[in-house]
């Protein structure tokens, strides 16, 4: 039985010394790996995580560090194509966006003025596409070393969506038992369950762990493990969540494969 776990968070660079990341520590992912390690049938654990994430202690886990969503995608595809993975737990907090342009209000204003003066038809329609074209044409505010110049005020960053990593798993490993994660912030209970179940259906997950930021504290972590029938069980600590995910997915794998 081989396991793939993603944990922690991704990091997207702004320039050579700055980046956008999130607060995920990878604690829950590391607990999940440790509990899989205690199961005798498990013969391999592939643990993909951010560089600042906690890693599982005393396990057979093979650690792969990643930074960006692009590097995460490369790592996952490599592992899935080389190994027959039985269970996937995608607990990583993956960036929804990455930087595609860094400029300033002054530079953008200069681009706009130059563009209007060059236009023979007067003022063009201000559309999303028009603004993007101005951004692409505007000069860089990066030094030759890739760092943002220190004399710049009113920075403007534009961001583009990153690939949805969770959608890749079943395309490459259609027989794997996939558990996804969904985190919301101060949502109602019904909204949380409905949103997580929508993620499950869209990405062909067997289970999804739904949780809300308001319920994650130093003392506890409330999570709802939802199955394909939209039934769910409630847990109140990271330890309990990790144990439930491991026991539930292993049992599901054995039942569906007649083991």
């Amino acid at each position: 039985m081989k396991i793939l776990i993603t944990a922690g968070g991704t990091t997207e660079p702004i320039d050579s010394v700055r980046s956008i990341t999130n607060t995920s520590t990878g604690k829950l992912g590391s607990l999940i790996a440790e509990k899989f390690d205690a199961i005798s049938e498990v013969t391999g654990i592939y643990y993909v995580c951010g560089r600042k994430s906690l890693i599982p202690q005393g396990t057979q886990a093979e650690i792969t560090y990643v930074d960006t969503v692009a590097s995460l995608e490369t790592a996952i595809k490599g592992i899935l194509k080389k190994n027959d993975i039985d269970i996937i737990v995608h607990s990583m907090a993956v960036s929804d966006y990455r930087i595609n342009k860094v400029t300033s209000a002054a530079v953008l204003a200069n681009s706009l003025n130059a563009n209007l003066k060059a236009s023979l038809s007067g003022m063009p329609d201000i559309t999303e596409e028009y603004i993007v074209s101005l951004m692409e044409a505007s000069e860089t505010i990066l030094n030759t070393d890739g760092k943002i110049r220190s004399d710049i005020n009113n920075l403007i960053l534009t961001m583009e969506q990153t690939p949805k990593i969770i959608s890749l798993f079943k395309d490459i490993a259609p027989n794997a038992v996939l558990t996804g994660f969904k985190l919301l912030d101060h949502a109602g209970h019904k909204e949380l369950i409905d949103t997580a179940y929508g993620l499950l259906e869209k990405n062909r997950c067997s289970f999804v762990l739904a949780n809300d930021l308001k319920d994650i504290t130093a003392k506890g972590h409330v999570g709802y493990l939802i199955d394909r029938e939209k039934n769910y069980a409630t847990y109140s600590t990271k330890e309990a969540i990790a144990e439930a995910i491991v026991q539930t997915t292993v049992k599901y794998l054995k039942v569906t494969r007649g083991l």
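The first helix runs from residue 27 to 37. The chain has seven helices and twelve strands.
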